[in-house]
Amino acid sequence: MRLFKTIAGLRSYLASCLQETDSAVTAQTRRSLGLVPTMGALHEGHLSLIRRARQENAVVTVSIFVNPLQFGPQEDFHKYPKTLAQDSELCEAAGVDVIFAPSAEELYGGRSGSRKDILTQVIPPRAMMAVLCGPHRPGHFEGVATVVAKLLNIVQPDRAYFGQKDAQQLAILRRVVADLNLPVELIACPTVREASGLALSSRNQYLSPEERSHAAALYRSLHRAEQAFHQGIRKSQELISIVKEELSTVAAMRPQYVELVHPETMVPLAEVEERGLVAIAAHLGNTRLIDNIVLSARKPIIAIDGPAGAGKSTVARRVAAELGLLYLDTGAMYRAVTWLVQQSGIEISDEAAIAELVSQSKIELVQHLEMQEPEAGDASLSLANPLTVLINGQDVTREIRTPAVTAQVSAIAAQGEVRRALVKQQKEYGRRGGVVMDGRDIGTQVFPDAELKIFLMASVQERARRRQLDLREQGQPEVSLETLERAIFERDQKDSSRKISPLRKADDAIELVTDDLTIEAVVEKIVCLYRDRLLSGA
Fold first, then answer.
1. DSSP for residue 28
2. Which terminus of the chain is more exposed, N or C, with fewer CB under 10 A?
3. Given the residues 43, 46, 140, 223, the one annotated as active site
4. Model pLDDT for residues 370-392, shown as the tens digit of each residue
């Protein structure tokens, strides 16, 4: 692990790291870079972000910088804990490659971070700063947006990781990244809590043992609101009253605000129609604490991931039919783009031309209500097409299943602009929930908040056997099992190491190995999980 305090040293080192190549790494799967911005005083919450970054990136950078620009005159900038030596040990143990720990003079070009009048700043939408912490911490989010924009520009990561505990910060930074067209993916990670429910924070160390015990009331109040929500209470006034009632049981607690807003736009809500964020700020002694919880009225989403040939699309279609949910074939979307690229005569390596093409294309998935049953004794996990796939109005349902498309779809799916365009459409399809989606990154990237995540696995040999049967049924030329096994193995390698959305099992996904299971058995397992875990707890 290396530690740098200057921008020049950091940039030089990262450039050398990312230029390193392996003979098995292709242009589409070059080394990716993850950034975890922190103010130090690292705890398990930070480490959860670092572990996620370590899983998803070849190189991980952690920034440690107590940013003066985001502190008000009466806030705790000068006493904020600074523990660089301890933080460095934690980072090294967690597998961090680089720590960036600049001074304020280095980061702000010799100008004091407290002199906001002489600094160029990033100003987020004022409406997003007009609620929750904004009115109580003037200038805070301008300072956060400015320092994060600088860090993103200096490090230039593929992904940056933030905790859901700072929900308003996360929403504002998402807007900043979108509005400034910054080429980075912001990854939200779940809040890490103590056994009492208290959200981990560097400021928790200010609390006395008695105050720490009292602080558990924050999460307890949010949990009560969540219970009421699941019992049918949707009105903001009622939900807020429940939170305040619970907080009032702790005499030492001094609530600063309790509000209900949209989790993405920060617009105050009178009632939760789809999703709502209940957020709290309160003082205990001299310590200010925040916490929040997202309430979701959408129908559950089932995310089914796994390697190529594991039976994802077949299983997803049948699960959707069994539960009366909408099936979205994300693989078909990538196949449709691949087919269009091939028809357009564009080279697979010409990412700019492909980005231009996909940004002007429209994909439609038209679902059929009837589902074709497999023949008796068929355990191959295959099914006739239940969707009509259109691209720019042309039906390409059969064309996208050819070996030619299959051979190149992984390379197309690995391209960042293709993924961004299709993920945007996938998220819109799933906005109201009630869908089953399959792919390689649904549970980790597209819908990390899916209520049920499944990771389907099967051996390379079994997947090759299934693929051979599928090709025979489609009347395609015979391909040997050895050839298919080699192709599937190579595709697994590409999908697992690609720079954009590598294939990875979500931490909270349930793995099902399908080698010796019929399609009916796999579907039954998932349907039972859905009913047991979701419906019984509703």
1. G
2. C
3. 46
4. 544 444 333 333 344 457 899 99
